[in-house]
Amino acid sequence: MAGLVAAFVTMSFGLLLTAASLVCFAGATCLRVMRAAWRTRPRRTVGMLAVFIVASVFDIARALALVSPAAHRGVRPPAATAAP
User: Fold this and answer.
1) Which site from 8, 16, 20, 59 is most exposed, i.e. has the minimal number of CB atoms within 10 Å?
2) Distance CA 39, CA 65 (A)
């Protein structure tokens, strides 16, 4: 997000910041996928690609959950009381 904001100020710095954040995101996701692959056998390329995609979507959803408001299922309306 900061990279997109910085792109309005100076295009080169904004693109550099956006690229750096994408590389960090992909690197962290790759480390998680490699750790999962190390524990399982056999290792297939197609399976690894699918695991990388799922891990990426999971990371994006987790990041969005931190910043977007959402209703919680545990919140219940107040119980009705009988009139005296």
Assistant:
1) 8
2) 28
Q: Dig out the tokens for 23 from the structure.
A: 């590389």
pLDDT at 57: 93
DSSP state, 81?
Answer: -
Phi/psi at 11 (5° precision) = -60, -40
Per-residue pLDDT tens for 35-73?
888 887 776 777 788 888 999 999 889 888 888 877 766
Structural domain boundaries in the chain: 25-68
Is residue 30 exposed (0-12), middle (13-18) or buried (19+ Cβ within 10 Å)?
A: middle
Radius of gyration of the chain (CA): 21
Give me the residue label for tokens 């699918």.
50
